[in-house]
Design brief:
alpha/beta; 7-stranded parallel sheet; 8 helices; about 15% strand
Length: about 250
């Protein structure tokens, strides 16, 4: 039997990179998948990949930094599939690259709005629905920079530390309501966002900082997220799992 057979799952930022890999893996493991992304073309590509492989999915365009869109994502998922069992809050951005004393206010506000407030908004409405279901499971995508600094990215570091703290709070509050919540902290993963913004030398340098001496793949993150989303991790909540090839080990 597949790990997520009969489940309904939601993935934000599911149009590319890690989010797409998570959505496709959820579907392969038997879940019906609701995909949200601000880029409609990318989101529909993910849906097509899933349906072409025999899975079931649909797409919702929207901005994960807005409370009203997060509420709509939950409402439309329930309208389509009748419930919400699993949510992976993955949408996020890196923001400007400047030290804290020079960081633009508008850049800070934009990063915090999506990476932290957006995750709170998502959880706020997902939890409301999961209580109606009698249980559920949330996985928030943080970063290795939820535990170590990312110099010249203060908003990103602060937002991802916040996601880890929010995750722990939810786990403490909802454990007796049959709702689990964990966070995953990817290291540097070979996604279009990363490779489009860094040259070959920069990618080589980042790879060398991990003890495994390589970038991770979206599928490696998706496999961890899927495990945490399944009953195979039924006694695990409030935890923060790093997938970084040893980047933070030294």
């Amino acid at each position: 039997m597949s790990l997520l057979e009969g489940k309904v799952a939601f993935v934000s930022g599911g149009g590319s990179g890690i989010g797409r890999a998570i959505a496709e893996t959820y579907a392969k493991e038997g879940a019906k998948v609701a995909i949200a992304d601000i880029n409609e073309a990318h989101g529909m590509e993910t849906v097509k990949a899933i349906t072409d492989s025999g899975g079931e999915a649909f797409f919702m365009a929207g901005d994960s930094s807005k409370a009203e869109d997060n509420k709509r994502f939950v409402d439309e998922t329930v309208a389509k599939y009748g419930r919400l069992d699993i949510a992976c809050n993955n949408a996020g951005i890196g923001g400007p690259a400047l030290p804290t004393g020079e960081y633009p206010i508008e850049g800070w506000d934009k990063v915090i709005a999506l990476n932290l407030s957006g995750v709170f908004y998502a959880c706020r409405y997902q939890l409301e629905q999961m209580e109606k279901n009698g249980g559920g499971n949330i996985v928030n995508i943080a970063s290795i920079h939820g535990t170590v600094a990312a110099p010249n990215s203060p908003a990103y570091t602060a937002s991802k530390h916040g996601v880890v703290g929010l995750t722990k709070n939810i786990a403490a509050e909802y454990g007796q309501k049959n709702i689990r919540c964990n966070a995953v902290g990817p290291g540097y993963i070979e996604t279009p966002l990363l490779t489009a913004n860094l040259d070959k030398d920069a990618l080589t340098y980042i790879s060398s900082k991990a003890s495994m001496n390589r970038l991770g793949t979206p599928q490696e993150v998706a496999d961890l997220v899927t495990f945490l989303s399944s009953d195979k991790s039924s006694f695990t909540t409030g935890s923060y799992f790093i997938a970084d090839g040893g980047y933070t080990a030294v």
